[in-house]
Amino acid sequence: MNWHWLFEILEREVPSERIVLANPFKTRIIAEAQIKTDKVDARILADLLRGRLVSSVHIPARETRQIKEVLRQRCFFVRQRTMLRNRIHRLLGGQHEVKLPQCSDLFGRKGAGFLERLELPAPARLLLTQQLTLLKELAVRIREDEKALEGLLEQSPALQHVRSLPGMGPILAAVVVTEIDPLKALEAQMDGYRVLPMAEAARVGDVFVTLTGNTHVLRVEHMRAMKDGAVLANSGHFNVEIDLDGLKQAAQGPTRVREFVDEWRLGGKRVFVLADGRLINLAAAEGHPASVMDMSFANQALAAEHVVQHARELTKDVHRIPRELDAEIARLKLAAMGVTIDTLTPEQQKYLSSWEMGT
Questions:
Q1: pLDDT tens-place string over residues 287-311
Q2: With b meaning 16 or more CB within 10 Å and e meaning fewer, what string describes 308-347?
Q3: Full-prediction pTM beyond 0.70?
Q4: Domains delineated in the chain
């Protein structure tokens, strides 16, 4: 969508202060509530306006568009940096006599010094020198964009708007959701995400993360359809969400390109599997943050206390934790975070508990 073009057309007919964007998937709600999003097709939007299904249209302010352009450019440079780092890993992988330094980041200060001093035979040395030079140039460009963003966003009213758009945060990811639950799929669609079947999502994705608790969510037929260099990770269950056995039979590999990253060759394309398909935050990072685990442990402790206190009443079965315990943990967590919420007034409590009022 060319927003500049669309804005100029609409601006001729509608005062700029009345231009409010409408999402065709929830037109009637938006017409009343003025909910904003930038996911709309120009032709559908024109039809909606002609049919008076929406009262007005919103195009993000020019300032917001400028910020998003800088974000997109930064994202482009980060992708180029990632590609260059992968090429360097592949180049070093072919130099079997090279022993890499023991450091967590090969491109950090220690690792970069090692790479600059590294002597390789021609033409590998030339390639490495060129790639390191490009990496330095990209680092400068990324820093320039980040500095520009700090200046643009520091006092800009567009900051919250930009950050509120799905996929438009600092990482700038266009997120696609795949689902088997129609309610969750509808929720994702209404939240502004693109919802696709896995067979279609496989063709457009760059990074795939499974969070289902099920088996073989990513199968070989999906991997064959993926782009060259696709990255696969699991954060939902045991290492069964990605069909690794099927991948081993159909692909060549694995080649360890760096810690926790295995390259598989599948039909002339590369697929990268992280941490052997195991829970990525446990296998390749430091696990769950304490700010999440404290709630889990509180749940377990209060559940154990509840069982002890009500042992005579409980049957030998699987019981849900009472909602009161969950609510108490949530209340304590909000208080620890310095967040306050409203409480029901006596009038509201009476209204919710009765059936006499209303239409």
A1: 777 777 888 899 999 999 999 999 9
A2: eeeeeeeeeeeeeeeeebeeebeeeeeeeeeeeeeeeeee
A3: no
A4: 3-50 (no CATH), 62-164 (no CATH), 205-283 (3.40.50.720), 294-353 (no CATH)
